[in-house]
Amino acid sequence: MASFVDSPGSPEAAAVGRVRNARGTGAKLRTEILDAMLRLIADEERMSPIPLSLREVAKEANITAPAIYRHFPDKETLGRAAIHSLFEKLLEQMDRAAQDAAELRPAARFAAVAHGYCRFAQENPVGFRLIFNVPPADLADGGPNATDVAQRWHMAVTWLAEEGMRMTQTPWEGAMSLWSAVHGRLMLDMSVRDMWPQGNVHQFIDELTRSVTNVT
């Protein structure tokens, strides 16, 4: 997980210009803190020079540092909440793609989910790399995680079987194989795009879908 450290020194004065949330709107403040954390995670420049501190998150949210502790008792808890939120957004994008393709043939539904997975990564490159670099033991508190992503890939592979994909593996093994293929090609596309003349990851998904189902 990304490194989060508290800065030394006494608590900051009240953030300038901050309008206090009305009594009973603590959930709104929690969301604002989490949104601030996600904005910082998405900003590679601000994440890379120094470990991210709760004081920096408070500054981004325009609140005092002590206000964070009413919702997140420590930096690890806030970090886990941010990772879970990113996983949730990834799952939402995959589910939305599946729903939009619900009336299409099974292979097209598989491709739609894979495209949704890759679009999230391309729109959130820093957060995407981060969530798959977190040990599962760090996310054992029940929030969305990689297991939920695996279930979406498993669902998509069962659609391929409906299309006539010859299954030489169990559905779970097939899901891992195809997820690995798309994820690996995606990471290449994000890191060595200029050296890869065979097209982008979305073209790869379409060709992969055709190759495993013999759909022309």
From TrEMBL:
InterPro entries: DNA-bd_HTH_TetR-type_CS, Homeodomain-like_sf, HTH-type_TetR-like_transc_reg, HTH_TetR, MT1864/Rv1816-like_C, Tet_transcr_reg_TetR-rel_C_sf. Residues 53-72 bind DNA. The keyword Protein biosynthesis does not apply. Pfam families: TetR_C_33 (PF13305), TetR_N (PF00440). Keywords: DNA-binding, Transcription, Transcription regulation. The keyword Transcription regulation applies. SUPFAM superfamilies: Homeodomain-like, Tetracyclin repressor-like, C-terminal domain. Residues 27-90 form the HTH tetR-type domain. Transmembrane segments: none annotated. It comes from the Bacteria. This is TetR/AcrR family transcriptional regulator. It comes from Nocardia jiangxiensis. The lineage of its organism: Bacteria, Bacillati, Actinomycetota, Actinomycetes, Mycobacteriales.
